[in-house]
Amino acid sequence: MILHELISYDVLRVIWWLLLGVLLIGFALTDGFDMGVGVLLPFVAKTDIERRIAINTIGPVWEGNQVWFILGGGAIFAAWPPLYAVSFSGFYLAMFVILAALIVRPVAFKYRSKRDDARWRNTWDWALFAGGAVPALIFGVAVGNVLQGVPFELTDDLFSRYEGAFHAKFAGLLNPFALLAGLVSLAMLTTHGAAWLSLKAEGPVAARARVFGTWCGIATIAGYALAGLWLAVGIDGYALVGEAAVNGPSNPLYSEVLRTESWLAAYAVRPWITLAPALGFLGMVMAVLGLRAGREGTTLLWSKLGIFGAISSVGLTMFPFILPSSLDPRSSLTVWDASSSHQTLFVMLIATVIFMPIILAYTAWVYRVLWGKVTEADVTDSGSAY
Amino acid sequence: MDLDIVELSRLQFAATVMYHFLFVPLTLGLSVIVAIMETVYVMTGRPIWRQMTKFWGMLFGINFALGVATGITMEFQFGMNWSYFSHYVGDIFGAPLALEGLMAFFLEATFVGLFFFGWDKLSKVAHLTVAWLVAIGSNFSALWILIANGWMQNPVGAEFNPDTMRMELTSFYEVMFNSVAQAKFVHTVSAGYVTAAVFVLGVSAWYMLKGRHIELARRSITVAASFGLASALSVVLLGDESGYDVSHNQKMKMAAIEGMWETEPAPAPFNLIGFPDMEARETHYAVKIPWLMGLIGTRSLTTEIPGINELVAESEDRIRSGIIAYDALMAIREARDATPPAVRAVFEDHGGNLGYALLLKRYLDDPREASEEQIKQAADDTVPNVWPLFWAFRIMVGLGFGFVAVMAYFFWRSSFRKQVYPRWALWGAVAIIPAPWIAAELGWIVAEYGRQPWTVDGVLPTALSVSHLSVADLLLTLAGFMIFYTILFVVEMSLMLKYIRRGPVEDVEETEIWTARHEHRLRTTDGKDPFAATTTE
């Protein structure tokens, strides 16, 4: 079949790099507020009915939202197999902790209100808190580590090896810069959750969410700025040596990589990418102002813009690197040498072009059906509410 | 390649996937049964059918939550524990997993929320559509994951690329319409339908025995028995189709299932029972049915089915050919674009057997230096452990025929005996609730254990597929999963039992109003209410 040559390999690779961003951002925008609501749950909702209202604002949609994450995993596997192989085994214990959190969460949603017992319910509420807070934190920590480079190397057979044992390495992941990135991620998604609650809940829950959201928003802005500064002065970047073989085979060992002064050199080469952090700041500032002023609909949109800017700024800063190696820079994975074959990228693109619009359409329809605030009556009158 | 890592990774995969598959078959089948019940509700308007939909839907929801949660583990485990597998075949294997997300998970997960929350927000027809979309989504996900699994059994549409050191896609069409994948899909989905039918039948029978929720139970048994009979027949017939495929594509698995060591003259007999002995390489006390094996496996009277010993000899030849391919590969890797065409041609000729050379990596780093003894040993490794396959297969098939009989019986009572069921039959229906799960897990043992020593048949040995981890890492996560999954299982079972014990929410008032309004339609010519039939004898 030569049909796939309609689109050249390098273009497909860039498209799939963009789609990787779309999936990660899609996950943060949708499941992000679910996790944020989980984090806020013990603090903004005091009584059982308040908690049920907060939970039921995301009750009908969290399951669909979570699929962005599952699809993200599948798409990385399909389009960037080396990235999937290296990162999932490299962040082994961190991935396990995320899995544990993501397994607890669905169960907590479904089972929490199925027993009328205060201790049972309180336990599951804290499970929901952990199910939101832990992944939000770890995703940020992972991004912080990726920016610093991950200690792996590829053998000639392209088997990926790591330095040291992982249960020991897990502590190494929690270095200061990575923790800062983790806290930014946690604060950002909590703000997003607060914006959602102020839109979908009423009364004291919404009011408390606005207060918490304001502070988390301010923390996000400060942390994001600090991380940017740190990146500028304290962290080495990576660069490809010579002209990149953009249409070459996906073998990372075919390219040479060296360490540079800073990632931020990218902003001199491609000044337009300044737009990403600028949108990040704009969105977060406007979200904070919106939460203060009690504006509902637009606040959520601003918060989405903030997340979009923050996540895309990381990807654009690192381009073409996806997963740099601190142990053996030559093994670093880039857009040009860590993708699937030409044909697989093409087939998957066709499938995405067909199904993504359909998914977006029916998701939008579901949100429209569920439009409006969740009230006490919605929770108590319906036999099927959580 | 530390063997401990391989064994622990396999144990973890087996444990988590078998746990996952406790929930999957019920999700597959119950989603369809619930949608059927709601269809009857929308067509007749009878409130009882909505109550049935809601009740079975509630049990579906409890089960669905754990199916989704444990499914995430599976998707991540390939990268976490099997990173060389992920690298080596991700170009082909990853695509169906991503498509599963795109086509199936979004569909079922987006609409499952609306199914539970949308009763008052949607019209009847819109809600029914939502129910069917959930069912279609669930079944689609089975399709894609089985295309992925089918490729591991029969790796078509792909070839090795020396530049990237991995298998790459050559034909997506072949991967998608892989005959093994298609046969597996229909067989697995039907097994899921049988599971749900047995579940609904058993729970309803328990209500009948307790004299509770008779109206709901009687109708549920009718649905379960008709749906279950069709499904059980299809499991058996399509299982036969699977067997036919296996005999073509995985001859070693077929011979092991059969405990057939020597090639028998066609048409080969079928070992009904026997005791396979790995050491002596024979099956003791075999009770043979003449001709049957040849008929099932080849659908002919003249085609031979090779025995294990013949296949081992064949493997040895392929290992030798694989070593030649490996040598060429090393030369290509050294010279890259400057490789002489003659070396490329050698790789073209022998590349298909490269995987067999990799079997030697268990014993030494460079297969080219393998001794005769090591080659013999690697060839012997291609024989899976025979007796678990032999017995797992027979128990599974026996259960399969059992389901046909049970469903046929209840279908007959339901259709021609006025829905009257003797108590022993009802108790029997309660007792066999676990049986379909046992059959399904045994089926997977046959499929996956029987594929050893390969993760991808003939392409990548299991021993090479793992990640660079330590034993401590694996023990930690294994223990974590065990503890975690046990707690979840206890919670899930207790909720399931609690809701079964509580039973459906019966809106008596609504039912009476509806009955009064439709009384004229309910009377038959003799003036009797056709639904006032007696219940148990």
UniProtKB/TrEMBL annotation, chain A:
Transmembrane as a keyword? yes
This chain belongs to the protein called Cytochrome bd-I ubiquinol oxidase subunit 2 apoprotein
Q: Which residues form a coiled coil?
A: none
> Which keywords label this protein?
Cell membrane, Electron transport, Heme, Iron, Membrane, Metal-binding, Transmembrane, Transmembrane helix, Transport
Record's subcellular location = Cell membrane
- Key word Membrane present in the record? yes
Q: How does it sit in the membrane?
A: Multi-pass membrane protein
Spans through the membrane: 15-45, 66-85, 91-111, 123-147, 177-199, 211-233, 272-293, 305-323, 343-367
InterPro entries from the xrefs?
Cyt-d_oxidase_su2
Query: What GO biological process terms does the UniProt entry carry, in alphabetical order?
Result: aerobic electron transport chain
This protein's GO CC annotations: cytochrome complex; plasma membrane
Q: Which GO terms describe its molecular function?
A: electron transfer activity; metal ion binding; oxidoreductase activity, acting on diphenols and related substances as donors, oxygen as acceptor
Q: Which family does the record assign?
A: Belongs to the cytochrome ubiquinol oxidase subunit 2 family.
Automatic annotation (TrEMBL), chain B:
Q: Which GO terms describe its molecular function?
A: electron transfer activity; heme binding; metal ion binding; oxidoreductase activity, acting on diphenols and related substances as donors, oxygen as acceptor
Q: Which UniProt keywords apply?
A: Cell inner membrane, Cell membrane, Electron transport, Heme, Iron, Membrane, Metal-binding, Transmembrane, Transmembrane helix, Transport
> Which portions of this protein are annotated as coiled-coil regions?
none
Domain of life of the source: Bacteria
Q: What is its main location?
A: membrane
* Any Pfam family matching the protein: Cyt_bd_oxida_I
Subcellular localization, per the record?
Answer: Cell inner membrane
Query: InterPro entries from the xrefs?
Result: Cyt-d_ubiquinol_oxidase_su_1 (IPR002585)
Biological process (GO) annotations held by this record are: aerobic electron transport chain
What are the TM regions of this chain, as residue ranges?
20-43, 55-74, 94-118, 130-152, 185-209, 221-239, 391-412, 424-447, 467-491
Membrane topology type, per the record?
A: Multi-pass membrane protein
Q: Specify whether tRNA processing is a keyword of the entry.
A: no
* GO cellular component terms, semicolon-separated: cytochrome complex; plasma membrane
Cross-referenced PANTHER family, in alphabetical order? CYTOCHROME BD-I UBIQUINOL OXIDASE SUBUNIT 1 (PTHR30365:SF0), CYTOCHROME D UBIQUINOL OXIDASE (PTHR30365)
The UniProt similarity line reads: Belongs to the cytochrome ubiquinol oxidase subunit 1 family.
Name of the protein = Cytochrome bd-I ubiquinol oxidase subunit 1 apoprotein
| Organism of origin | Roseovarius lutimaris
Give the organism's phylogenetic lineage.
Bacteria, Pseudomonadati, Pseudomonadota, Alphaproteobacteria, Rhodobacterales
